[in-house]
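Example record

The entry below shows one chain as it appears in the dataset: sequence first, then structure tokens.
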Amino acid sequence: MKYFFWLLLLAFSAGAIAQEDDVPPPSPKIKKTEGEWKPADTPDKTEKKEDFKPFSKKKKLDLSKFIIEPNFNFSIGNNVINLGLSPYVGYRIWEPKNTKAGSMQGLYAGGGITYFYTRFSNIEYLVSTGASVFGNANYHTYGGGVFLQYNIWKGFFARTKLEVLHRVMDDIEGYQPVYGTPPNNNSIIGVRYPKIEKTVPALLVGVGYNLLQSRNFFMPIMISYNVLHSVVDKNYSLYPRGVVVQLGFINLF
């Protein structure tokens, strides 16, 4: 009887241990969010996150603040052709307080490029034999500049412009005769020109008026003074005089 009791107690203990081993581990707490079950320790995707600020849109370029000066020239004279292009663009960088809507008053900064071509045709030369020979010469001018301009009132403005122009020119005065090939190698059949290259700066300070009466486009007539007039080679400058009167970029005198 004594042994039977101990065997019964041992069987009961083994059964209890087996039941504990068969019990699955406790499952995580479950909560229901918006009709879906998910573990309690899972991040709640529906929780409100910090407000996301999208990238700010780029500001559109305000075209009303631009001034455009096309500046072109084409003219034909007595054996002379002139062709020029000098577009300049400015942008308003400052305007007075309480400026009326649509007003172009204010300070502008800008720049541009310049190309000017001149051709002289049928330049006559008398050679030692008394005969006449003819030549054609070309001038090329290119470069650019920057400017500050203050629009004062109703088309009137003041401007300071710095230009640096490079000039490549045929030396008309230093021409060289061109001789024919044998048997006429002693006869002069034409002339050739050595090249002259000069870089000439100019600093123009003056006032003007916009003939177009446009908010954005300029065709100015202006009077300026070339501050660098006395320190540059006047023989090769586009502005050989100190005072310059211009229509666009065409020198009137």
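Notes for this example: Residues 2-22 form the longest helix (21 residues). Confidence is low (pLDDT under 50) at residues 4-9, 16-21.
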